Amino acid sequence: MADHARTTPTTDSVPTTDSVPSAEDAPPPFTVAVVGLGGTGLALARRLTRAGLRVIGIDDDPAALVRALRLSPGERPRTLTRFPAGVASADLVIEAVPEPAALKRAVLASLREHRRPGTPVLTTALTTVLADLEDAAGPGLFALRFLRSDALDAVELARAPRAGDAAAARVLEILTAAGIKAHQVGDRPGSLAPGLLLGLLNEAAWMVHDGYASAEDVDTAVRLGCGWSEGPLAALDAIGLDTARDVLARLGDLGGGLRAPAPILDELVAQGALGTKSGRGFHRYEEGAAERRTVHPTAPPGRNVVVIGSGTMATGIAEACVRGGFRTTLLARSEEKAAAAAERIDFALQRNAPPADASSDDTGPAPWTATSDRSALASADIVVEAVVEDLEVKRRLFAELGKVCPPNTLLATSTSSLPVGACTETAGRPAHVLGLHFFNPAPLMPLVELVPGERTSAHTLARARAVAERLGKQTVECGDRAGFIVNALLFPYLNEALGLLDAGEATTATLDLALKSVGGQPLGPVRLLDTVGADVALEVQRRLHADPAVWTPAPATLLEQLVAAQHLGRKTAGKGVRAYLTARAAATVPAAVAA
After folding, report:
1. Which of 218, 227, 335, 465 has the most CB atoms less than 10 A away?
2. 449 is catalytic
3. Selected catalytic residue, list 191, 416, 417, 517
């Protein structure tokens, strides 16, 4: 049933095993039949076997049974057989055949004829709701949903309308015995973590397809910028590019705002590049394939840096430059702002943090100053603009920089969401400008996105890369459009999470737990949004949506409401998503009672 699903016995010769435990072995607490030994089913069978459960692996495809037979003794199911043998003796039946609903209905109907009355059945259906399968399956139907079969410590568990409490208790008992944490969620196509994250992974694939950034740079950006343990394209490789493409296509057909699968998925699948299971996908995994990072040229950047601005990003970039050994000037609009910024930088420099470039010959921070005297621009080798995120303000500033800075000064904008070309074209020096996108807090975050314009010279790009490397940063390169890599992936994901909350598809606690536990995220989307700030998220999402080069929905209604109510998250003393939804729910109760 892994590759050729047949639901009737056959007389073909197949390997069958049934290991007999020794007298010293404790009897397994439960017997679980896994029907369908493709990638997902085999991963489930291995996980349950390792946990000490008695597993019966069932498939009508001889090749699938042979693959299971080749597993190590500690992972191989105790019994491998054809359908329907073993179904009647199971305490739990897991259906793990491929996703099309018609196939799953046929298999579930066959299982219903053979499993004991009261035995619950789990389906791995991700794109089909349980209500569409329950008539075929009968009572006791649940869905086991997850993103990756190689990470089964936690799953999302959905319950069909007619599934009883006794069956639910049995399912949870068996999953607990297997060491699998089950998060009980509502029944929706894509579930919570799988659907949300697949949308993000697909957008990462589109970036590579469009030539906007390399697979290496996309994965590096998300690892370092979002704290992921691996990048989104490596995650797609682990899921299987054929599996991800098919699931994305089915979810897209159901609506809900998911973009069509990136064409590069079809191209790689046609080449036999399915991800880790085939040894190559977006990355290479063949034996002996070493991880190599592309080495880009650098050029001497110069020593004098002027950082323009006095806010959090400006002071953070200035601190990083001082620690990196650059002679640094922070240029503020007034002496009062310069003094306040200098106090913050001085306090930060006195903390016991080592310089960013530990290999530098410098023994301590370089000379630095904070001032409102714009004559500092006349001797600048590098200028980093970090003023308010307002296009007209930036354009006026770059017009000034083009007039007063030396001819070879590197002019960089630290914009996080505006097009670099639009910000910098007024300088009149297209070869010398680019984007240097730092992440907050700039002294600590290890990533810098390099965003060259259409006419940025190779020498300017090499100098900018040298600046970042001297600060101890790792760089990625991408095209010039709103959001660059990290923000263009992160904020639409947060926006979609708010849409789920607004529709009542999940609670804030359930959503965060599912994304952390099942999705492997360092922070759930609710907590992350409260950390970033709803106002920041709204502004970025608006700019992403307005850029014709970026495919992303309009800001979620809930995001607009959060900002209007000044529930911005951590910056508003805890008034964030949870507090807003709690207050909104409380306000609707009296109205409902009165009605």
Report:
1. 218
2. yes
3. 416
**How many other CB atoms sit within 10 Å of the CB of residue 139?**
17
Task: Using the predicted structure, report yes or no on whether residue 74 has a pLDDT greater than 90.
Answer: yes
The answer to whether residue 359 scores a pLDDT higher than 80 is no
The upper half-sphere exposure of residue 254, i.e. CA atoms within 13 Å in the direction of its Cβ, equals 18
The residue-averaged pLDDT of 408-430 equals 95
- pLDDT for position 288: 60
What's this model's pTM, rounded to 2 decimal places?
0.90
Q: Which of 449, 469, 477, 496 is catalytic?
A: 449
**What is the residue-averaged pLDDT of the chain?**
91
495 part of the active site: no
* pLDDT exceeds cutoff 90 at 27: no
Catalytic residue among 437, 477, 496, 567: 437
Token pair in block for residue 291: 């991880």
- 2, two tokens: 């892994």
Determine the residue type at 67: R
The CB density around residue 487, as the number of other CB atoms within 10 Å, is 24
State the pLDDT at residue 417: 86
191, 310, 417, 487: the catalytic one is 487
Q: In what order do the strands lie in the sheet with 304-308?
A: 368-371, 327-331, 304-308, 382-385, 410-413, 433-438, 447-452, 474-477
Tokens of 271: 């080449």
Q: What is the pLDDT of residue 295?
A: 81
Is 296 a known active-site residue? no
Name which of 231, 259, 255, 234 is nearest 245 in CA terms: 259
Contact indicator for 167, 140 with CB cutoff of 8 Å: yes
Written as one string, the DSSP assignment of 422-483 is HHHGGGS-GGGEEEEEE-SSTTT--EEEEEE-TT--HHHHHHHHHHHHHTT-EEEE--SSTT
Percent above pLDDT 70 for the chain? 91
Q: Report how far residue 207's alpha carbon sits from residue 209's, in angstroms, rounded to the nearest whole number.
A: 6
Is 4 designated active site? no
